[in-house]
Amino acid sequence: MNLKRILLYLRLHIKLFSRTRSGPFFLIIFPVILMLLFGSIFGSSSIGKESLAVQNDGPSSAYITGSLKAINESGLFNVYMVPAGQSLSSYMKSNSVSIGISFPSNFSANLANHSAGVQYYSEPGDQAASTYEPVLINLILAGTGSTSAIVTAQPVSVSGLGKPVDYYIPALIGYTIINGIFSMVYVVPNYRKDRIFRQLSFANLTKSEWLTATTLFYVVTTFLSDLIIFGIGVLVFGISLQVTLLGVALSAVVIVSGLLLFTAIGLLAGLYTRDEESAALAANVIFFPMLFLSGVFYPISVMPGYLQTVAYLLPLTYFNLTLKSILLYNSIGPVLLQIGLMVLAGIVLFGLSAYIATKKIEG
Amino acid sequence: MGEIIKVNNLKKSYGKLSAVRGISFHVNSGEVFSLLGPNGAGKTTTVEILEGVRKRTSGVVSVLGQDPERITESFRKRVGILPQDFNFLERCTANEALEFYIGSLDSSLKPDELLKTVELSDKKNVYFSRLSGGQKQKLGIALALSNDPELIFLDEPTAGLDPLSRRSIQEVMRNLRSLGKTIFLTTHYLEEAEKLADRVAIINFGMIVDEGTPEELVQKNKTSDMLVVTVQDGVSLSGVLPSLAREKSKGVYEMPIKSNDDLFLVLDSISKSRIPVNNISLVRENLEDVFMRIVGAEENES
Ligand SMILES: Nc1ncnc2c1ncn2[C@@H]1O[C@H](COP(=O)(O)OP(=O)(O)O)[C@@H](O)[C@H]1O
Ligand SMILES: [Mg+2]
């Protein structure tokens, strides 16, 4: 491996890439459009408030009042109070309210010993309801002034009130990761057909140098599109995620591992098919289920059970969940092992596909 | 420097197919050596083995003192290659392609000089995909020259081009020759080998069937010149020159001519006979005829 040649090819590759129409579109413009789209749909409260049914089974307390105040002041919800003892789910059904929370009788007491929980009610399959879940958690935390765990066992940050659009930051980063599948899938069969690798070898550029330059390019451009997604979220939709330096660094690690993994899958698809068309088909067969089932467009929790089972068989799901955990909840400890496994999977599969490529590509 | 390429009993099989069946030859430094043969003769197989692109089945090969199966980066810096069906990155300009090659091969040449050598200066900033067939080949030659190589392989550089482009590329090759480069040229155009090569090896069915300078090949394989006489309807030359004339088709006679005396004798006899003649021509055999006869004339595309 020769660094000078890698950089020379990288420079050439950047020029050629900028001249293709589809490359910049899918890498930069498409995620931007998605972010703007989801941002406009879920990021602005002017779209119309979500109905929220609230029930308090316990005594009135400053915590409950504070939570309700925070929820009301967020401007995101029309709140309907449901009297204690009444069935919250039947109220929601008869009044077409899609989200409900119920404070159990021991909520205020438990808050002091860090074991409080609220019951979150939502329609299975309701996408919006599920995206509001973290929002409500944050609002309640803010309202109670508590730092303890609520609803889920995951620690939730107090500062920074989430909006549903926040969800789409990790999700769309997930989209940019899985896009890596297309980084090699067309190029490899075409370059083989046109014997470009042989031609490059006459300039002493080896296949591993080519692969390094191309992958490097893809990693850098993906970071760029992720940065743009992030920027749009912050500047256009006023997202305030709880992001630490460690969180950013770990997200970068997750993104690189994902790119290695999916680039490798695309590379293998390109190597084991005869032409560009069948390679693209193979890649799309892998791509589309993950695009729709791994939590890019809507959370996995809104899907019916059997699809959730499928989702957990798809690798992108873990990248999405991990990014969500880091970027949305600043929850790092519980996903460290998962990150380690993803790094390992990325490196192993990429190494394997690179080895096969150097053996299989002629010339 | 003497022999820059040495090949001894080279064989190459693809499965059951023997593409090259034990060929031997050498190429001297500074000469243009042409491997001439019809399609499928084994030219590309041979040249790619010399370039280190393909592995041989058996035989001994030395190129610039190295075995091309164990080439190093330095080998690529000393050798220029224009492969058959040369292709490059579609949206890359001629200038960018050359810059990449020059940088990657640590050459000190300039893209402009190379474009000038191949007469492509006006296409400097044109995408590869927008170049014509002949211009693409010229860029391919420029890339092959970008490391200022001692030895250049050109595999069918003019195949499939129109006559004008072909001539233009041949002009470029002549320039290279005058720069003192050793050139290994494969072609199925005889006229190209005849015009450009110092030595020619004719390959057919994976075997070298003849070798020498173009003149030597003609000389060695030469049959005698032919005088072809066409007479008017209803008359015959048979009575005039019974021993020599052979009626090839109706009214067309062929006579082998070995010397000027032969020629005068025949013309004299015809003249004395007063037989009305439509046409008389003297046909000299060239390398083309020799080549066609050697390779069996089964190939005819150009
Ligand atoms: N990679 C290959 N696999 C199988 N057969 C091949 C391969 N390359 C060439 N051949 C066969 O070997 C013979 C010689 O081919 P080639 O060297 O390309 O001839 P030429 O360059 O003279 O046209 C042909 O019969 C061709 O079909
Ligand atoms: Mg050939």
Describe the structure.
The complex is a heterodimer of chains A (363) and B (302). Chain A has a four-stranded mixed beta sheet, with helices on both faces. The longest helix of chain A has 31 residues, at 207-237. In chain A, α1 (3-19) packs across α10 (207-237) and α2 packs antiparallel against α7. Chain A folds into two domains: 50-157, abc type-2 transporter like fold (3-Layer(aba) Sandwich); 164-360, no CATH class. Chain A has helices at residues 3-19, 22-42, 62-73, 88-95, 107-112, 127-144, 164-178, 187-193, 196-201, 207-237, 245-271, 276-293, 305-311, 315-329, 336-360, and strands at residues 50-56, 77-82, 99-103, 119-122. With 363 residues, chain A is α/β, with parallel strands linked by helices. With 302 residues, chain B is α/β, with parallel strands linked by helices. Chain B folds into two domains: 3-216, 3-Layer(aba) Sandwich (Rossmann fold); 224-284, Alpha-Beta Plaits, CATH 3.30.70. Chain B is built from ten helices and 13 strands. In chain B, the strands form three sheets. Chain B has a six-stranded mixed beta sheet with strand order 5-6-7-3-8-9, sandwiched between helices. A four-stranded antiparallel beta sheet of chain B has the order 11-12-10-13. In chain B, α3 packs across α4 and α5 (133-145) runs parallel beside α6. The longest helix of chain B is centred in the middle third of the chain and has 16 residues, at 163-178. The two termini of chain B are 37 Å apart. The mean pLDDT of chain B is 89. Adenosine-5'-diphosphate binds next to β2 and α1 of chain B.
